[in-house]
Amino acid sequence: MERRGRMDCPALPPGWKKEEVIRKSGLSAGKSDVYYFSPSGKKFRSKPQLARYLGNTVDLSSFDFRTGKMMPSKLQKNKQRLRNDSLNQNKGKPDLNTTLPIRQTASIFKQPVTKVTNHPSNKVRSDPQRVTEQPRQLFWEKRLQGLSASDVSEQIIKSMELPKGLQGVGPGNNDETLLSAVASALHTSSAPITGQLSAAVEKNPAVWLNTSQPLCKAFIVTDEDISLLCGDNSTSLPENDEAFRYHGNGAPK
């Protein structure tokens, strides 16, 4: 290799030297390697090494490692490239593909997914219930298990007994939870309480459960039930008859 000697580098702090070595043999004969030496004699072979050593003391963004000079045009190109990169990241790439994706479920034939829209005049199938119906938690009544009321003396109040015709349905259901669920339905909903009308709910409650009704089998309130509940005062309270029939049978009689 032929060494041209070390020369001062005015673009770097005082004491820094630049050396260019020309290769004489091999496939790269005639090409040169550039090295920089610090005032203490430490050798640097690349611009990243130089930048790590100098840190924030010298801005090397426009420094050309081969010539040893500051190139303002190079700084402008770097700024423009960074600006374009940031704009491209914020803008994003538009997805011009309007075809419906293929279903991921196992099938012999490839079927596109069903697109649902809320616009009634659109040819695509609309499902207005997707907006009106809010999701409900299954078996939320189980959160009422273990809760009981107490009086002012902190004595637990004995819960009332449910009629024999009112039977619970679903996993791990008991009379106390059912009573709390029925009371909650009476206070939070104005709809009639009919119980679970579907017979399939006993086979698979997680699928066929009607979340707007308490976890009990379908029942009908009879005159005998009203008499047993109201006792001797049933004749003097005609409004009770209508109320019981409304909540138990779905409509007043």
TrEMBL record:
Matching PROSITE patterns: MBD
Pfam families in the record: MBD (PF01429), MBD_C (PF14048), MBDa (PF16564)
Entry GO terms, CC: chromatin; histone deacetylase complex
GO-annotated molecular function: methyl-CpG binding
Biased composition regions of type Polar residues, renumbered to the chain: 85-98
Primary localization class, coarse: nucleus
Protein name: Methyl-CpG binding domain protein 2
Gene source species: Chelydra serpentina (Snapping turtle)
